Integral membrane protein (Streptomyces tagetis), 192 residues
Amino acid sequence: MCGGEAKRKRLWRWRRNPLRRRVDAVEAWIVLLVWALIAVGGTLAGLLTAHAADASFARQRAERQPVRAVLLADVPQSASPTQTAYRALVKVGWTAPDGTSRTGETPATSGLRAGSSITLWQDRDGSLTGQPADPADASVESALYGAGAAVAVAGLAYGSGALVRWRLDRRRLDEWAREWERVGPRWSQRTG
């Protein structure tokens, strides 16, 4: 018997009730829709975003390759005596995948001399690019992107639902005010 009462309380918005207004039923369906969007839409957005990010990182790992570059100039020392690790832009030369010699600038650690070799990353065109994320870092970053997308969809759905429910509350209050204007004068009559 107790289980039946609990079930009725959970579904009170949909049960027949002479005091239930149309606005109450609309609100019940909106709440159901919002939670469905949060559960299904948030999960779907998170999974799709994580999959797309993971595919992008895999594509970067496939397209980028390491290359040995030679410093064409000395890396200047830090001007500050307290700063031990310093990176400065320095001119480098490397060979592109098509065999042509290229030059460009890249940050390098201070203290390196011209002629030193460093490892850089290049794309298919031979342009310098950043090092791609390793698979473990890419997985973590993809998961964070997916979680962010899920939270964004859930927040948007919840915020939209809250706005619609606020408007329904305003409408409900206006209906109550109109009914009170109609019924209130009859209650305030004095007998006697």
Q: What stands out?
A: The chain has a mean pLDDT of 85. The chain has three helices and five strands. The first strand starts at residue 65 and ends at 71. The first helix runs from residue 2 to 10.
